[in-house]
Amino acid sequence: KKLKRSARLVEMTQYLLSRPHTLISLTAFAERYQSAKSSISEDLAIIKEVFEDEGVGELHTLAGAAGGVRFVPKVRKDIALGKIVDICRELEQPDRLLPGGYLYMTDLLGVPGMMQEVGRMFASAFANRNIDVIMTVETKGIPLAHATAHYLNLPVVIVRRDHKVTEGSAVSINYVSGSTKRIQTMSLARRALKEESRVLIIDDFMKAGGTIQGMVDLLHEFRALVAGVGVFVESGEIESDERLLHDYVSLARLTEVDLKSRHITVQPGNFFHNQ
Ligand SMILES: O=P(O)(O)OC[C@H]1C[C@H](OP(=O)(O)OP(=O)(O)O)[C@H](O)[C@@H]1O
Fold first, then answer.
1. Structure confidence at residue 179 (pLDDT)
2. Nearest CA to ligand 1 atom 19
3. How far is the CA of 229 from the centre of ligand 1 (A)?
4. CB 126 within 8 A of CB 249
5. What is the pTM of this model?
6. Ligand 1 pocket: which of 211, 215, 233, 235 to mutate (most atoms <8 Å of CB)?
7. Chain-wide mean pLDDT for the chain?
8. Which of 118, 134, 157, 93 shows the shortest CA–CA distance to 226?
9. How many A from CA of 180 to the centre of ligand 1?
10. Pairing of strands 133-137, 198-206
11. For 74-130, what is each residue's pLDDT tens digit?
């Protein structure tokens, strides 16, 4: 049945929010709501204004026959900063400190609402990069990769820690996870990634960067490209020149770890620096 204008606005908003980074033609909207394209355009202008004022995201309009509108999730830095500060306070709980300067984060990775917020921040940080797939390494990176992939409307590829018979023919590389100074193996099924794919790497924690660098080396084996790197928390203990990898976005930074006093300081990451 034909909706009245106010109901149509509500329905269109819900439709757009549930289809991030998806181009929807004006014709499709006009047919769906049995309305003139001019009315749909007016509705979209209202939704666009509210989305941008409220920090929900942007509505990009593509003109022309194959045109339409695309909802691009974006966070307002001031709102995101407030959320990250709360997460930093949570991460500073002394009993989160683990040997090797790690933080226990598995509980946070199990909170869907927080993963959604972090996913939206990563999706906002990388909204304008041309990305084909999100990659992470098992295990703790998985919820972050999926949350980010939802808001970027992209598939997720999960790198295994060692070869699994259930993955078929695979490419394996060795790497040193700086934290453990151990040679480790990561492996990805040959069929999982097409050549020339533009890949966004997401992980939960970066210390020496060996794990991320391992994924970069793996992508090289697939002749795929690194479109970006996002880490939830970076360890500030590593001086940047020691770090294997420099071009990344972090949401939080572990700046101080005192094993004796068990004092931890976690601050907003470089996502917030270029305010
Ligand atoms: O920067 P690096 O020095 O390489 O360290 C960061 C790695 C190590 C740790 O993974 P693990 O806890 O080893 O593995 P899992 O994610 O399966 O818990 C973390 O999740 C990152 O992937």
1. 64
2. 205
3. 15
4. yes
5. 0.94
6. 211
7. 93
8. 134
9. 9
10. parallel
11. 999 999 999 999 999 999 999 999 887 789 999 999 999 999 999 999 999 999 999
Report, in angstroms and rounded to the nearest whole number, the Rg of the chain calculated over CA atoms: 21
Distance in Å, CA 211 to ligand 1 centroid: 7
Contacts of 108 (CB under 8 A, 6+ apart): 87, 90, 91, 114
Contact 44, 61 (CB under 8 A): yes
Phi, psi of 41 (to 5 degrees): -60, -40
| The two three-digit tokens of residue 74, written as one number | 């974006």
C-beta 203 within 6 A of ligand 1: yes
**DSSP E strands, the chain:** 23-24, 57-62, 68-73, 97-98, 102-103, 133-137, 156-159, 170-177, 182-189, 198-206, 225-235, 249-258, 263-268
- Cis peptide before 265, with omega less than 30 degrees from 0? no
Residue 243 Cβ inside 6 Å of ligand 1? The answer reads: no
Q: Which residues of 28-43 are buried (b: 16+ CB within 10 A; e: fewer)?
A: ebbeebebeeeebeeb
Token pair 């101080």 in the structure block, residue:
256
Q: Both ends of the chain: CA-CA distance in Å?
A: 47
Helix (H, G, I), strand (E, B) or coil at 37: helix
- CA-to-CA separations, 35 to 9, 32, 38, in angstroms, rounded: 12, 8, 8
pLDDT at 246 over 80: no
Say what the pLDDT of residue 202 is.
98
- The string of pLDDT tens digits covering residues 17-35 is 999 999 999 999 999 999 9
75 Cα to the center of ligand 1, angstroms: 27
